[in-house]
Amino acid sequence: MLNVLTPNGKKYEDDTRKVLYDISKKLGIDFCFFPLESPSFVDGFILKQDMLLSVFEAKFRNASFSDGSMVFQGKKYSDYLITATKIDDGIRIAKKNKLNYHIFVILADSQHLLSFKIYDFLKNETIKHKRTKTKTQFGANGGIANRVNAFIDIKLAKVIKY
Length: 162
Fold this sequence. Notes:
Layout: H1 7-27, E1 30-33, E2 44-48, E3 51-61, E4 64-66, E5 69-72, E6 75-77, E7 79-83, H2 84-96, E8 100-107, E9 112-120, E10 125-126, E11 130-137, E12 144-153, E13 158-161
Parallel strand pairs: 3-8
Antiparallel strand pairs: 1-2, 2-3, 4-5, 5-6, 7-12, 8-9, 9-10, 9-13, 11-12
């Protein structure tokens, strides 16, 4: 988990909020964030004309989008990896509030946003993904974690250039 109160965490959080603010103006929506000082299971809610539409989680990556893949440190990935609990927590909150759930992945190197609709409330459908127990980086501040990760096909994302 990223600690947004560390220098690294604060930088990523500031960059994430700036990009989402710019995108919100293009799409006519608002992102309502939870306070940084109180940890939460998701980053916030999406509103349009004072109506809640979705729960969201946002991720900032020093990566790019090319030929339908995410490119990180010179390697192409066809799936986006995220901790499975992020999917489960977001869906749980979305269902309780009768909302959709989105994960946004900001790919800073190419200025693309991947928008994954993880849960569709009206259809009661969850995005198709694979789960595997893996060893991954703990967060922006380093460390190693053993956890169940979800792999979501990048072809399932709506890609937005910002």
